[in-house]
What we know:
This protein is α+β, with helices and mostly antiparallel strands. The chain is built from 5 helices and 3 strands, in the order H-H-E-H-H-E-E-H.
Amino acid sequence: KGFGAEVKRRILMGTYTLSAGYYDAYYTRAQQVRTLVRAEISEALKDCVALLSPVAPTPAYPLNSKVSDPLAMYVGDLMTVNVNLAGLPAISLPCGFTDSGNSSYPSLPVGVQLIGGAFKEVELLSLAHTFEKTFPITNAPKLQL
Length: 145
C-alpha cells in the first residue's frame, strides 16, 4: 500500500533475484560488476573533481506517458544506475528545456548529473552551486496549473 506499480515491480524483481535459487547467479555476479564499475569511474575521476553526464538518455517524457511501458522506464535510469552501483555521490541539475515548437505540447526539462569521488560530497555540492550560477536556466516555460 502506498507504492506505485513501478516501485512494486522493482521490489518484486529484487526479491526474486535474491531468493535462494538465484543468489549466486545474480547477486555474486552483480557484486563483481559493481567492483568493475567503481574502478572505471574512480579511474576517470583521477584527474578531475567530477564527471558531467546526462541524467537520462532522453529528455523527460510527459507525465504518465510511459506507465504502461516498464522497459522504457528502466531505460530512463540507464545513466544513473552506474553511479548507484559504484556507491559514489552524484547530484542532478536542471540544464534547460526542450524546444517543443508546438504550443499544445509542452517543453520538457533536460538534466545533467555531476558525479564525484568517494566522500567528496562537499566538493560536489560546491561545484553544483557554481554550475547553477554559471549556467542559469533562461528558457523555462511558463507553468500552467
